[in-house]
Design a protein that fits this description.
Blueprint lengths: L12 H11 L15 H10 L8 H10 L18 H13 L7 E14 L20 E13 L5 E6 L4 H14 L5 E5 L13 H8 L4 E5 L10 H13 L7 H19 L11 H26 L6 E6 L2 E8 L8 E10 L5 E6 L5 E8 L1 H9 L1
Parallel strand pairs: 1-4, 4-5
Antiparallel strand pairs: 1-2, 2-3, 6-7, 7-8, 8-9, 9-10
Length: about 375
């Protein structure tokens, strides 16, 4: 039997689950020769393998949209395999949020492979009804490397452009840093590039530090942890404001542009970056959200009971949604399964929004929003 009125759903609850399960598997696991799913290829596979009797591409998209699954979208990520990842990360973050008094904290790295590219036509400014235009074809006029040192307390930058990034280039730049920062103790954040460390060929960094009175304390980011180095943020600014849409006829023009930008930055714009990462905030925020939603689930259950709306109704949490449904059977004699019919969603402007599931299986937002008691009253009336 079916509860409620209207046309019977063409897609059963089990088939909806099959759509979601298939979307969460690699296409190769189902014998499909492609890297990621499209809605159309997923529909064809579901029907050809017998997982679903009949379904349209639109319904596949609706089901995945309701489940907040986008199998056609790919986001790159990089996970550190460094066994000391947490220890190194916490040491660097501690420097950022609790800077030692009287001890500068410097972030140093190099931006390599900066190309001096020239275009036959300069950037065409935007005008009404048309974006700015940039010549697609270019000519390569050489490359340069930028060594950078960012003071996290002041935002001041030291920079030097070179034709290479070999160890002598790096140590020469450290000499420049040492001539500017003469404090008894200076902290330096670096990544794990071989020119930044001692190797089996020699104790290059230790020997350099000894020549400068062993004043420098080096803090190395974890493997694949260069994002912890704040100079990378400043390099991003250089890319956007100096390199991306500028034409350089020679490598010297590129160097002049970067040196001019450094002077402007230090004279007018230098500021510390607001560092907010403090370990694993995502883990804590997810735990806090789960606890908050569990409390909301119990509150909703109590309000439904007070309003005599709990007859056969189950309440469960799914992300930032509170789902309410009853046990239903697609055909007599089969095992019943909970089918969600009403959904409360946490919103920003108002506490909750109310949605209902139509016979097609798609959630439809209602115009009602407000506090949880107000939404329960809407359902009751």
């Amino acid at each position: 039997m079916r509860n409620g009125s209207g046309r019977p759903a063409k897609i059963s609850a089990l088939e909806r689950h099959q759509v979601i399960a298939a979307a969460c598997r690699a296409p190769s696991e189902l014998g499909v020769d492609r890297a990621v799913w499209t809605h159309d290829s997923l529909r064809e596979t579901l029907v050809s393998t017998g997982l679903v009797r009949e379904i349209s591409t639109t319904v596949v998209g609706d089901i995945l949209d309701d489940a907040e699954i986008k199998p056609h979208r790919v986001k790159m990520w990089c996970h550190s395999t460094d066994p000391d990842d947490q220890r190194k990360m916490k040491a660097i973050v501690r420097l950022y949020v609790r800077r030692p008094k009287g001890e500068p904290v410097l972030c140093i790295d190099e931006k390599t492979g900066m190309q001096a590219l020239s275009r036959s036509r300069a950037l065409q400014p935007a005008r009404q009804g048309r974006e700015a235009r940039f010549e697609f074809e270019y000519k390569r006029n050489g490359t340069r490397c930028l060594f950078g040192c960012f003071n996290i307390a002041t935002g001041q930058v030291l920079g030097r452009c070179t034709t290479s990034r070999k160890r002598p280039d790096f140590l020469s730049f450290l000499d420049l840093v040492a001539s500017v920062y003469r404090q008894r103790r200076v902290h330096v954040v670096l990544d794990n590039l071989n020119t930044h460390k001692n190797t089996h060929q020699g104790r290059f960094i230790t020997d350099w530090n000894r020549r400068h009175g062993s004043r420098f304390v080096f803090h190395y980011t974890p493997t694949h942890g260069s994002w912890l180095n704040q100079i990378e943020l400043w390099f991003g600014i250089v890319s956007r404001r100096v390199l991306r849409h500028t034409s350089f006829r020679t490598a010297d023009e590129l160097v002049s542009a970067i040196e001019s930008f450094i002077d402007t930055w230090n004279g007018e714009e230098a500021h510390p970056f607001r560092w907010t990462y403090d370990g694993k905030p995502l883990v804590r925020s997810v735990s806090a959200m789960k606890a908050k939603m569990d409390t909301a689930r119990m509150t909703l259950g109590r309000l439904l009971k007070q309003s005599d709306l709990t007859s056969g109704m189950n309440v469960r949490v799914h992300g930032d949604h509170l789902l309410m449904g009853r046990d239903e059977m697609d055909t007599p004699g089969e095992k019943s399964e909970t089918v969600d019919r009403v959904r409360l969603t946490r919103l920003t402007a108002t506490p909750y929004g109310l949605s209902v599931r139509r016979h097609t299986g798609r959630w439809e937002r209602t115009p009602f929003s407000g506090s949880m008691p107000e939404m329960v009253e809407v359902m009751r009336t």
